[in-house]
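Q: I have 499 residues here and want to know how they pack in 3D. Can you give me a structure?
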Amino acid sequence: MRTPSWMTLKSRVSATAIASSMAIAALAAGGMLPVTAAHAQSAATARGLPDFTDLVDQVGPSVVNIRTLEKVSNNSAEALGMDEDMLEFFRRFGLPVPNVPRQRSPKGGQSEEEQPRGVGSGFILTADGYVMTNAHVVDGADEVIVTLTDKREFKAKIVGADKRTDVAVVKIDAKGLPAVKIGDVSKLRVGEWVMAIGSPFGLENSVTAGIVSAKQRDTGDYLPFIQTDVAINPGNSGGPLINMRGEVVGINSQIYSRSGGFMGISFAIPVDEAIRVSDQLRATGKVTRGRIGVQIGPVTKDVAESIGLGKPEGALVSAVEPDSPAAKAGVEAGDVITKFDGKAIEKVSDLPRLVGNTKPGTKSTITVLRRGKLKELSMVIAEVPSDESAKTKAGNSGAGKTPSGTLENKALGLTLSELTSAQKKELAIKGGVRVSAAVDAAARAGLREGDVILQLANVEVSDLKSFEAAWAKADKSKPVNVLVRRGDWAQYVLIRPAK
C-alpha cells in the first residue's frame, strides 16, 4: 500500500474530524482537557485506520477456493441409518457426508458416487498453475477442484503434501495466472496490520484483517507459527496472510477455539518455511528431513542453574536411539545440546527445526554441556523415514537380581543398591546406582523405586562408592541436581536435602 502524501491525507480528513479537532483544542484552552491529550487525540484522528481496498484488488485474484470430493457408497443413506431426504439435505447444502464402507451392487460391481468432503482455500504460487494450500485441506481427497475468482474451475493434481508442516502443493492445467508476491517474514513486526482472504464456511473471497499478535509461537515440532487476531474460521485453511505491501507472509492454518469458531487467536505458517517445503514437494513429491536420533526435553530454570548452564536454554537429551548418529557421536542421556552447527539452541524446539532442515548425509557438529563442561561432537545426519513413528521400548530397570550391598542417604531420602550386569546391559549404560526406595525429599522430587541415578551434583556416578564421594563434595545448603534414568528416558531432578 502506498503511503499517501500530506495533501492526499489532508483531503481525506472530513469536516466532522476537523470540527472535532477544533472542539478538542477549545476544551484544552478552557482547561477542561490537557493540551498533550488534545494533541494525541488530534494526531490519532488524522492518522486514521488502514485502507485494505487496494490490497484486495491486488491480491484477491491470486486466492482460490478449494473443494474436495471423496467416493462413497450410493447406498450410504441406508448404511448411515438416515432416509434419502436427510441425505439429500446434506448434499444440497454441501455438508460432508460421513464415509461408510463401500458396498457392492447385486451384480458384484462397485456402487459409489462422489460426495463433497470439505472446503478450503489456497493461493497461486506460480503463473503456470502451482497452488499452495494446507495438507489437511486435501488429505484423503479422491478429487480436488480449484475455483478461481473469475469462476473458472479446474481439476487439480496433488503434487505433494507434508503433514508435519501442514503444507501441500496442487497443480492445475492453466497458464498466465496471477501469482502472489512472497514477503520477507524476518521483517514482519508484532503489531503490524495483516489481512487474510479465504473461504470461511464456504463463503468465497471473504476478507478479514487484524494485527500480528506474536511471532515464533511454538505450537509444532517443525514450525514457529505467526499468531494473529485476524478472523479465521473453517474454510480459511490454506489461504494467504498478507502484509500491507501486498506480499504473502504466511498460510492460515490453525485457530485456537473452544467452540469451533474464531476466538481471537489464529496461527499462520511462515511463508519462508512453507516455500522450503513446497520446493521439495515440487521437485520430488515428498520432503526429506534430517535426524540425529535423540529424544529431547526443555531445560528448566532450576536445572539450568544447578548444572552450570546459567539460563534455561538448550535441549536436554532424555534418550539416545541405538546406532543413531547421536549414539555413534557419543551423545549421552543427560547431555544438554546448546548448539547445532554453531547456531545456538535457545529453546528445545529449535533443535528439531535446525536438524530437520539439514540435508541427510551432511556432516554436522553439536555442542553439549556434560557435567559442567562443554564438548563438541561430530556426526553425519541421517534421514527421517517417511513412516517414522515415535515408538520407544519400555525398559525395565528392575530386571535381574539386585546384588548385595545397599546405601542409605537420609538427607536425600534415598536407599540405593548396585546395578547388576544384566541391568547395565539392558539399559546400555556403563554404571549407575539403582533406587531401592525413595522417601521424604527424594519422593517429593519425583524419584521412585527402580530409577537409576547416573549423576549427582554434576559428578558421574558409576557405583555406590562414587555416589558417596559425589555426595561428600556436594553443597548441601542448595538443591542437588540428580540425573535419573527411568526406562529408556533420562531427566534431571532437583532434590532439596533435609537439614
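Q: Anything worth noting?
A: The radius of gyration is 30 Å. Residues 1-33, 42-46, 100-108, 387-403 have pLDDT under 50 and may be disordered.
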